[in-house]
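request received
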Amino acid sequence: MIGAFYQPKVVLADIDTLSTLPAREFSAGVAEVIKYGLIRDADFFDWLETNMHSLMALDEQVLSYAIYRSCQNKAEVVAADEHEAGERALLNLGHTFGHAIENAMGYGVWLHGEAVAAGTILAADLSQRLGWLNKQDIQRISAIFQAAKLPLNPPKLTPENYLALMQLDKKVADGQIRLILQQGIGKAVMTADYDKAMLNQTLEAIAA
Ligand SMILES: [Zn+2]
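response:
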């Protein structure tokens, strides 16, 4: 039935298969795990900071917990919002910038999670310019992506290039680029109500 949504009854994650992944693919997956901490679960973010080394070493208990907590967060978001409107949009943290990166570089040149990591850094940079994140938050966000061996620096496209690609995002409404931004670690919001000059500053800083 078109327009109906059904949620899965079971999510099975076989952690043994993770050890067969190339390191780059594994890191790319970790980007989406970090995302849950950033958008809604500050305790999980703290836990990830403490356990990232073990996670990257594929420690079974740490992996199991990270996957469990990620699934729990996703299930809560989806249950609260079955139609991809409110909270579910927060799962797109880093993705508006990230999709622009993937698109510009050609799909597969940057892995999705790599583009999301660099995109999340850009969203954090804009959030700091807006006064919503402090310097320490920025350092923590950079450090955790670095510990997960993910890229911090996006490709040096012009701001015009980024903006043109970001306009293709499905969250654009009335020509306005709606972004997922952070108002602290563990708190994200979707908004088009940000200072566009500051978005330009974020994009100009890439090329600098
Ligand atoms: Zn994603």
